[in-house]
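Q: Give me a backbone?
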Amino acid sequence: MSAAPLGWPGIIRLGLVQSSLGAVVVLTTSTLNRVMVVELMLPALVPGLMVALHHVIQLLRPRFGYGSDVGGRRTPWIIGGMAVLCAGGLLAAVATAMIPNYPGLGLALALAGFAAVGVGVGAAGTSLLVLLAKRVQPERRAAAATTVWIMMIAGFVLTAGVAGALLEPFSLPRMVAVSAGVVGMAWLVATLAVWGVEGDAPAIPEPETMPAFRSALREVWAETRARRLTVFIFVSMLAYSAQDLILEPFAGSIFGLSPGESTQLSGIQNAGVLLGMLLVAGLARSGAGRGYGSLTAWCVGGCLASGVALFGLSVAGYLPDSWPLAPSVFALGAANGAFSVAAIGSMMAMVAEGARAREGVRMGLWGAAQAIAFAAGGIAGTGLVDLIRLVSGSALTAYSMVFFLEGFVFLVAAYLARYIGPSSVMAQARTWIGRGAATVSAGGR
C-alpha cells in the first residue's frame, strides 16, 4: 500500500529541511571562506580547495540516490545527513579559529570539517529531492521543487543577515559561537520538519526491477534528455560557483567591506536569487499551462543575464567610489535564481522519465554534475585570482579578468540550455513569431 501524495503542508515541511541545509552551507562556503582569505590572509586557493573537496565528495550522490531507490526510506538519510552536515560545519568553524595559533592542526581539521559537510549535503540533499520526486504528484513536482529551493535561499538570506549582524564586532571566538548556534538550530529544525512526513509504508521496488548500480547509471546516461540536462547543469554551475567563492573577498579587498558587511552583501545576492526564483515560478509556462516562456527559455535568459551582470562586475572595481555594488550583486543574484530554478523545475519534470525506479539515480547524476562543477569552479575561480594577481601584481586586475571569464562561460551555458527541453528555444521562438504574425494579420482584416 503506497502512501498518499504529499500536499502543500508536507512540501513546506521539506522546504524547512532545505532551509536548514542552506543555512549551514552558506556559513561554511561564504563566511568561513572570507575569514580565511581576508582576516587570516591565507591564499584564496586554500578555502577554494576545501570547498572543492566538499563538492568532490558529492560525487557519491548517484550512489546515495540508488540506495534510496533500493531501500525505499528517505528519512534516515535526511536526518543522518543533516547530523553529519552540522557536525562538519561546526568543526570547520572551530578549525578556522585555530589556524592563527595552530596552523597545521587547524587546516587539517578544517579539511575534515569541509569533507563532512560534503557527505552531509550529498546524503540529505539527494534523499530530500528523491522524496519530493516520489511523493509529489507529477503535475506538482516543478512547483514543489521551486518552493523548496526558494525556502533554501530564504535560509541563505536569513542566515547571512542574522549571522552578519551577530559577527560584529568580529572576533574568532564570536565566529565560533555564532556558528554553533546556526548548526544547532539547523539540525533541530530539519529533524522536526521531516519527522513523520514520509509515512510508515516505504515503496520498495521488487528486487528483479533493480539492476546493479553501474548498470542503472549507464541506463540513465543513455537517455538523451537526461544527458543534455547533465551537461547544461555542469557548465552553468561551473560559472556560478567560480563567482560565488570570490565575491566576498572581492568586496573586502577592493571595496573595503568588513566581514559583517560582506556577509550582508552575500545576503543581498541571495535576496536577488530569491526574487529570480519567484519571478520564474510566477511567470514560467508549465507543460500544460500558460505563462511567459518555457522553463528552457528561462534557463537561456537567466544564463544570458548572469553573463551580463558578471561583465558589469568586471569593471566595477575600477570605479569603487561610484559603482553601485549592492544593486549589481542583487541583479546577479536575480539572474542566477532565474536560471537555477528553471533548471530545477526541468529536473523535477524529467526525473520520472525513462526507466522506472531510477529517480534517485537520475537525480543523483544531476547532483553529481553540479558537485563536479562546483569543485572545478571553486578551484578555477580562486586559483585564477591568485595566479593573475601573482603575475600582474594587481588584485583588481585579477578579479576583473576572472569575472569576465565567468561571464563568458555563462554565455556558453545559455547556448547549451536551448536543447534541454523537448524542443529547442528557436523552434519555440518561431512558433511565438508565427502566432504574433497571425494575430497582426487578423487584426488588419
